Amino acid sequence: MKIGVVCYPTFGGSGVVATELGIQMAKKGHEVHFITYSQPVRLDIFEPNIYYHEVNVQDYPLFEYQPYELALSSKMVDTVLTEGIDILHVHYAIPHAYAAYMAKKILLEKGIYIPVVTTLHGTDITLVGKNPSYKPAVTFSINKSDIVTSVSQSLKENTLRSFVVKNQIEVIPNFVDLSLYQQDVPCKRSQIAPNGEKIITHISNMRSVKRIPDIINIFHRIQKAEESILLMIGDGPEREKAEQQAKDLGIYSKVKFLGKTTEIKKLLCMSDLFLLTSATESFGLVALEAMAAKVPVISSNAGGIREVNVHGVTGYLSTIGDVETMANYSLTLLQNPELHEQFRKNAYARAKDFSIDIIVPKYEEVYQRALASIKKGKENNPV
């Protein structure tokens, strides 16, 4: 099977999932072609069966905003024609599913029917999609896809509430490769916490929806009762404010802003606790990655996080913005070694439910079903 994958090539959850899924499909012997504006951060193009096609957007003075969707559609068409792509899997309704529909129509004029699988990840629904400027296009893109999947039940329900969806939406959760979190050597905690401090970690794109001030406020309460260090991994518009907040609270020396890094696994290995305080979260992939590293999670109860983090088992859930309760839950674990160890084991056991070996075959089955629909004459239906 030759699969075209369209995604954002960034550190965000959708890009990570799309890339890892493509890599796993390539390992299964499928030919995987990534179509995007830059090479995905986790993609090794020297691996067998993996190809990368860059979308080049020409800069014309005539356009105030360069037409990326047109360039993307054209690149999809070109890749299908030159590489013999069997199926397109697009991650995000806007602009990817919309561009895929345009490519599909162009190819149909040439007598080629390409099924499109669209995976909804969250922001395309919860933020971009609800904008009146984009809502008609999002609705259209979802309904014109051959198969639509969502990364959580929460996101599926949100989509059905927000849009007039005629297509069925299948829930296929995000996944984690547990083998990547098996450490061959002991974690070098002393590099981060030379005096044996507890290590608390947060990873995000540091946008307002992540409620970064809550992270700083929770840690401020924790460090009063327990010697600890906070690792802030990632970058974004809220970082500068968070740095100033830490300075104002007198805890800046205990907060390490590490920016974007590919050393996530090593840092999680050192961590005692993971904080995720988001106002909205379609799934919470980063929480799952923490759990795969045997790190208990203290989180808000927003959206799909509740489908990953099990309250009182793998960590604790709290109402969005309730920093006092989250801090108290954190101290409950940090100050009770036996309970903390049990939660570590529980977190890893829960992560196994989202193992790549369980989830990836579900996508493979979706691809096969989409291709089988062609043989049943679906190519004759109006698109």
Folded structure, characterized:
- The chain has helices at residues 13-27, 68-83, 93-109, 123-126, 135-144, 153-162, 212-225, 239-248, 264-270, 285-292, 323-334, 337-352, 356-375, and strands spanning 2-6, 31-36, 50-54, 87-91, 116-120, 147-150, 169-171, 198-203, 228-233, 255-259, 273-276, 297-300, 315-318.
- It has 383 residues and is of the alpha/beta class.
- The chain has two domains: 2-175 and 356-380, 3-Layer(aba) Sandwich (Rossmann fold); 178-352, Glycogen Phosphorylase B (Rossmann fold).
- The strands form two sheets. A seven-stranded parallel beta sheet has the order 3-2-1-4-5-6-7, with helices on both faces.
- The chain is elongated, with a radius of gyration of 22 Å.
Spell out the blueprint of helices and strands:
Blueprint: E1 2-6, H1 13-27, E2 31-36, E3 50-54, H2 68-83, E4 87-91, H3 93-109, E5 116-120, H4 123-126, H5 135-144, E6 147-150, H6 153-162, E7 169-171, E8 198-203, H7 212-225, E9 228-233, H8 239-248, E10 255-259, H9 264-270, E11 273-276, H10 285-292, E12 297-300, E13 315-318, H11 323-334, H12 337-352, H13 356-375
Parallel strand pairs: 1-2, 1-4, 2-3, 4-5, 5-6, 6-7, 8-9, 8-11, 9-10, 11-12, 12-13
Helix pairs in contact: 2-3, 3-5, 7-8, 7-11, 10-12
In short:
The chain has 383 residues and is α/β, with parallel strands linked by helices.
CATH superfamily of the largest domain: Glycogen Phosphorylase B
Number of E-type strands: 13
CATH class of the largest domain: Alpha Beta
First and last CA, distance: 23 Å
Query: Can you tell me the overall shape?
Result: elongated
Strand content: 15-25%
Q: Given the helix and strand composition, which structural class is it? A: alpha/beta
- Uncertain segments of ≥5 residues (pLDDT<50)? none
> How are the strands ordered across the major sheet?
3-2-1-4-5-6-7
The sequence of SSEs as H and E is EHEEHEHEHHEHEEHEHEHEHEEHHH
Main sheet? 7 strands, parallel
> What name does the CATH topology of the largest domain carry?
Rossmann fold
Using the CA coordinates, give the radius of gyration.
Answer: 22 Å
Helix content: 40-55%
Helical run tally: 13
Mean pLDDT equals 91
